[in-house]
Amino acid sequence: MQKRVALITGAARGIGYGIATCLARQGTSIVIADVNAKAARASAKQLAAETGVKTLGVGCDITRRTQVAAVVRQAVKRFGQIDILVNNAGICPFVDIMEMSEAMFKKTMDVNLNGAFHCTQLVAAEMIKRGQGGRIVFITSLAVNVTSAQQGDYAASKAGLHMLMKSFAIALGPKGITCNGVAPGMILTDLTRFHWEKPEPAAFIKTRVPVGRIGTPEDIGNAVALLCSPQAAYINGVGLIVDGGHQAVCA
């Protein structure tokens, strides 16, 4: 069977790198696209050393459609195809909605929502041209359903992303391309470790997450890998919550 190729945005670290790792372990070639080009190249090199798969690290600001188009061309030139797209790149400034500037609100929408639109439209066009179907996964958030005053922009963008996923699922399903979402719960990354390893947040995890631990980037990666597998061919337009049961706990 021909090896698959996955393009993952925002994958130089954190959840994105965890997703890349899980797909690479299945033998999938990986394109790491990140706004930090140097980090993308370094992570691609590291992933290749860890898993033995072919990788490509490229810089890409997904808010710029021309840059996304260039990355798609690079990926196809290098590997001949794109079978999987994971829209992972995102930002969350954590600023009170009443204090937030118009520019900051717009930037969150540009990265989290508009960027995913560019990536999905351009990659899907390539998948349709090839005629072999594909898998597209959108990394959404629990903020699709719950939010705070400091996450107004983030929650609005992720709720929009969830519905964008559904629209693409309807449009692309007849082409053999499935679109689904994964909503991570509380995940331990290099950026969040400083918070979740403090005594109070750590105790919160123990009492409010039924499985008794915080999630890892690879927990999300395994969920993405499941949705990209042949066994998930009939799963389309679904938002999968991966939070250890946190949202099942009554307030």
Please characterize this protein's 3D structure.
The chain is α/β, with parallel strands linked by helices and 251 residues long. It has one domain (5-240): Rossmann fold (3-Layer(aba) Sandwich), CATH 3.40.50. It is 46% helix and 15% strand. It is built from eight helices and seven strands. A seven-stranded parallel β-sheet has the order 3-2-1-4-5-6-7, with helices on both faces. α3 (65-79) packs parallel to α4 (102-130). It is globular, with a radius of gyration of 17 Å. The termini are far apart. The mean pLDDT is 95.
Tell me about the largest β-sheet: 7 strands, parallel
Strand order of the largest sheet: 3-2-1-4-5-6-7
Structural class: alpha/beta
The CATH architecture is: 3-Layer(aba) Sandwich
| CATH-defined superfamily | NAD(P)-binding Rossmann-like Domain
Low-confidence stretches: none
How much of the sequence lies in strands comes to 15-25%
The overall pLDDT average reads 95
Query: In the CATH scheme, what's the topology name?
Result: Rossmann fold
> In one word, what is the shape?
globular
Helicity level, as a percent range? 40-55%
Query: What's the CATH class label?
Result: Alpha Beta
What is the overall number of helices? 8
Question: How many beta-strand segments?
Answer: 7
Query: Separation of termini?
Result: 48 Å
Domain count: the total is 1
Radius of gyration: 17 Å
What is the N-to-C order of secondary-structure elements (H for helix, E for strand)?
EHEHEHEHEHEHHHE
